[in-house]
Each structure stands twice: as structure tokens, then as C-alpha cells.
Design goal:
Layout (H helix, E strand, L loop, with lengths): L2 H9 L9 E5 L5 H12 L4 H12 L8 E7 L2 E11 L8 E9 L8 H15 L5 E3 L6 H9 L17
Parallel strand pairs: 4-5
Antiparallel strand pairs: 1-2, 2-3, 3-4
Bound molecules: coenzyme A (COA).
Length: 166
């Protein structure tokens, strides 16, 4: 048995099985759970950052095309996805961008990430775009495996960066 199969057997409790899952827009009351998942995944608590993300992507007044969705199972937030439609940035016709996707570690490998991505992609389609992009750290093999499994491949844009110094 591979390590992955072992993870799959132990990982997702019954409460997070696909049939009991709902994907819905974030509410203010979800923020603590979102912050807890992000803190668990990244090791860094960023309350102010998440409040500003909520204002920008989660509130009714969020920019058109912005989406901040959560996955809820048995009354608990077990994952989230955030993205928006960006027009003509980098010279590209309007497309959807996925900025963040996270599933609580004890709820992974049960299809929740897939459901979250499906939902945000449906939103992008409704907004009229036919292309989605994302960016990921080249050493994050987990998120790379996930996006590849969903059909995403290297695109025609490449990231460039440099240190700015003092
Ligand atoms: C990536 C992530 C969202 C996947 O969520 P998930 O609910 O476990 O994903 P799913 O169960 O829908 O998995 C879908 C596919 O992704 C791939 N995948 C998911 N976890 C994997 C793993 N540990 N190893 C290899 N492939 C994996 C598989 O191909 C899987 O399909 P399969 O189950 O049919 O084999 C989740 O692992 C996570 O939150 N990771 C941390 C994310 C992160 O680093 N975020 C910061 C940058 S935005």
C-alpha cells in the first residue's frame, strides 16, 4: 500500500464525505475557521490580512467577478478557495485567477479541493471567461499535483522576480 493510499483511508472523517458537503460564499462568521486553517497550513496567523481579504472578496460589495467560497461539512468550515476575474492584466484577455485554495489537513483526500475548484470555475464561466490561471511555488508538489489532477498545465506566461534590496 502506498503512503497516499494510507493517507486516504485515514484522512477524511465521515463528516467530510462528498455527499454531506456544501460549497457556499463565505460569511463573516467563517473568518475564524478560515484563519485557523491558514494558520495550520502556513504556520503564520494573519488576522488583519484575512479581514482585508474578506472585505475585498467576501462582502456583497466585493469587486464583480470576485469569489471567496468555503466548504462546509457537518457545520464546520473545512476548506476555502479565493479568486477573481481580472481584465487585461499582463496583456491577457479577461480570465479567472485562483489565488488561494486550502483544505483542512484532516479533511483532505476526500474530494473537497476538487469540489471547491469546480465551484469557483463555474463562477468564472458564469462571469463569461473561458480561461483560468493560478500561480504556485515551484517546490509545492502537493498543490502542483492537485492542480495537474484538475487538468491545469503550464501556460504561456512565466513568472519573473528579483530582490529589490534596501
Ligand atoms: C491541494 C489541496 C487543496 C487538495 O485538497 P483535497 O481536498 O485533498 O483534494 P482532492 O481530494 O479533491 O484531490 C484531488 C486530486 O488531487 C491530487 N492530490 C491531492 N492530494 C494529493 C497528495 N497528497 N499527493 C498526491 N496527489 C494529491 C490527486 O490527484 C487527487 O485525485 P485522486 O484523489 O483521484 O487521486 C490540499 O491538499 C491543500 O489544502 N493543500 C495545501 C494547499 C496549499 O499549499 N495552499 C497554499 C497555496 S494556495
Amino acid at each position: 500500500m502506498t503512503r497516499r493510499k494510507a493517507e486516504r483511508t485515514d484522512a477524511a472523517p465521515a463528516a467530510t464525505q462528498r455527499s454531506e458537503l456544501s460549497i457556499r460564499p463565505v460569511r463573516r462568521g467563517d473568518l475564524d475557521a478560515v484563519i485557523a486553517i491558514d494558520t495550520q497550513v502556513t504556520g503564520l496567523e494573519k488576522r488583519d490580512y484575512w479581514r482585508s481579504v474578506y472585505r475585498r472578496y467576501g462582502e456583497a460589495a466585493a469587486a464583480p467577478g470576485a469569489q471567496f467560497l468555503v466548504a462546509e461539512a457537518a457545520g464546520e468550515v473545512v476548506g476555502f478557495v479565493i479568486g477573481e476575474v481580472r481584465d487585461w492584466e499582463f496583456g491577457a484577455p479577461p480570465c479567472g485567477w485562483v489565488f488561494a485554495i486550502d483544505v483542512r489537513p484532516d479533511a483532505r483526500l476526500a474530494g473537497i479541493g476538487t469540489r471547491l475548484l469546480e465551484s469557483i470555475l463555474s463562477g468564472f464561466r458564469r462571469a463569461g471567461v473561458r480561461k483560468v490561471r493560478t500561480m504556485l511555488a515551484s517546490d509545492n508538489t502537493l498543490i502542483l499535483s492537485f492542480f495537474r489532477s484538475q487538468g491545469m498545465m503550464a501556460g504561456r506566461f512565466i513568472p519573473l522576480e528579483m530582490d529589490l534590496g534596501e
